[in-house]
Every structure is written in structure tokens, then in C-alpha cells.
Design a protein that fits this description.
By secondary structure, the protein is an alpha+beta fold. It folds into two domains: 132 residues, no CATH class; 74 residues, no CATH class. Helices cover 29% and strands 27% of the residues. Strands 7-6-5-4-3-2-9 form a seven-stranded antiparallel β-sheet, with no helix packed on it. It has a two-stranded antiparallel ribbon with strand order 1-8.
């Protein structure tokens, strides 16, 4: 698996979110009985659209949790007609409140994680950090921050400015140098371009619905 640790995986587009792709939650699978500590197991993981119930994707897996020190989950599926077949090692910790908690060892970074992700266009399941994934809520918050900054700049030019939804940029205030005014206007355009782009991406994801693992 060494080849997965370099190249495009660490340069993944930061605009991608967790909700754009597929997620494998190890402890949810254990709670649901899809993976059982102490035995070997094989089955199929299937994702469905949370809004329509339509099947989105499916992969085969084998889980061997007989001995914690040698435990793994083997994933096998096709991506763009190319077969993918690899093992993801598992490890355990003992929480203070008792019991055992299982973890994936990310096949790219070696990081201990509870979930693995596969964004659109990538053949591998790995940690969120590897793909630099955000959450939709983070995308929305980033958009809001950009637009709030823009609004403050608009208010600097015109105290009567109500919102950043106004189409017109306020005129140059009396006493402000043109260089300062032009720089402020450029910054307003820059912030609002970024803010609305993030907001459009966030809104575009809402009707589609996320993928739920069954």
C-alpha cells in the first residue's frame, strides 16, 4: 500500500466535504453487528441516499477481529472498472469507563481513526485528514465569515449600509483617499466572490442528500 502515501492524496481539493463521498464508521458497524469482535466475518457494505433511499454504492469486505493484535478489515471493490483490494489494520484502546474501543489504522497516514472516507474521484478509503475534508457546516460557516467581513467593509464606506445583499458598492466617503477606497472595494468584491461561491456549494448539496451506510 506504499503507493497510496504520496501524490494526489495529500493535495486533495479542500473544498470537498465529508458529505460529498462515502464514510465507513467502524464502531457503528460493530454496534450494528455488521462487524463482530472475536470472529471472522464477510459481507457487503451498501450506501443509500438519505432522502430517496436509492442505492448509491456498495463494496465487499472481510473482517477478522479474532486476535486484536492481528485484526484487519479487507476491502474489495471496483473503482472506475479497476479492482481495489487492500487490508486496513485495526487496533484497540481501553477507555477510562471500561470496555474496548476499536480503531482503523489509516492505510495512507498510519493515523488511528474511527472513520474512513472516500471522496468522489478517489479510489481509496482513508482518513479525513488525508483528503483535507471539511464538513458542510464548515463550508457554510466559512461563507458566513467572508460575507460578514464584506459587510463590515461596506459599513466603513457607508454607515447606512444594511446588508451585504445590496448590489451597489457605497460611494467614496468624504475625506477618504481614492487609493484606500479602491483597495476596500477590491477587498469587498474578493470576499463576496469567495463567500457566495461557498454558499452556492453548500446549498447545492442540500437537495441531493447524503449517503447513509446500511
Amino acid at each position: 500500500m506504499g503507493g497510496y502515501g504520496s501524490g494526489s492524496f495529500y493535495r486533495w481539493n479542500s473544498k470537498q466535504t465529508v458529505e460529498d463521498g462515502l464514510t465507513i464508521d467502524l464502531n457503528k458497524l460493530i454496534r450494528d453487528g455488521s462487524i463482530k469482535p472475536g470472529i471472522g466475518w464477510q459481507a457487503t457494505l451498501t450506501w443509500t441516499n438519505t432522502r430517496t433511499g436509492e442505492k448509491v454504492a456498495s463494496i465487499g469486505y472481510e473482517a477478522n477481529l479474532i486476535k486484536p493484535e492481528n485484526a484487519y478489515v479487507r476491502l474489495h471493490y471496483n473503482h472506475n472498472d479497476k479492482p481495489q483490494d487492500y487490508k486496513v489494520r485495526l487496533t484497540t484502546t481501553q477507555p477510562n469507563f471500561g470496555g474496548v474501543r476499536w480503531w482503523f489504522i489509516c492505510p495512507v497516514s498510519g493515523q488511528r481513526v474511527g472513520k474512513l472516507y472516500s471522496p468522489p474521484g478517489q479510489p481509496l478509503f482513508a482518513s479525513r485528514k488525508v483528503f483535507n475534508l471539511a464538513y458542510q457546516s464548515q463550508r457554510e460557516n466559512h461563507a458566513q465569515r467572508m460575507l460578514d467581513k464584506s459587510y463590515k467593509l461596506r459599513k466603513r464606506l457607508d454607515r447606512k449600509a444594511e446588508t451585504y445583499f445590496e448590489a451597489m458598492i457605497p460611494d467614496k466617503p468624504k475625506g477618504m483617499h481614492w487609493k484606500t477606497y479602491n483597495a476596500t472595494v477590491d477587498e469587498i468584491h474578493h470576499l463576496e466572490k469567495i463567500g457566495w461561491a461557498y454558499m452556492e456549494q453548500f446549498v447545492a448539496d442540500i437537495p441531493r442528500g447524503g449517503a447513509s451506510l446500511k
